[in-house]
Hints:
By secondary structure, this protein is mainly α. It is built from eight helices and two strands; from the N terminus they run H-H-H-H-E-E-H-H-H-H. It has a two-stranded antiparallel ribbon with strand order 1-2. The radius of gyration is 22 Å and the shape is elongated.
Amino acid sequence: MxxxxxxxxxxxxxxxxxLGPPAYVVLGMIGLGARSGYxxxxxxxxxIRFFWTISQAQIYPSLETLERVGLISGRxxxxxxxxxxxxxxTEQGNAELERWLSDDEPIPFELRDIALVKLFxxxxxxxxxxxxxxxxxxxxxxxxxxxxxxxxxxxxxVDQQGNPSPLLTLRMGxxxxxxxxxxxxxxxxxxxxxx
Length: 195
């Protein structure tokens, strides 16, 4: 006898949308206490923007989807004449966020860095231009480390309060950019020596 799924199971699969990373970022930020689309964008700018970007154009549609499927609940809370909608994560939203964080699917590594693309093709430049590009990439990573070091005290405070995750990701960011600096420094003599 062939297995036939229950009608309710079919409806559940058909009605549950497929959420992409932007929706989970929004869900996670609400779980951390962001209440509005504006606050989500601010929290992203102070934290994960160093390794994952999300735009206003992704935040608001994600909020609508998450609310429609019951993972967050929203209500109007205007500020003066400005309309404002604030959100809270639901019990179902917490469960879905936890499920997504703990799923054992492969975790793809995505790196989109136009500087690396330009370095790959640097042979098309003359020696001085190629060296200048390498130096710019190195200086960019040096500046990123300075920026990360400025927000490190806030991450250390959160760590002392029992949440080590922001400090962990910040330190990984520092290590990544330090590795970029080290490799650029290693290759600088080769760029000087190019004919």
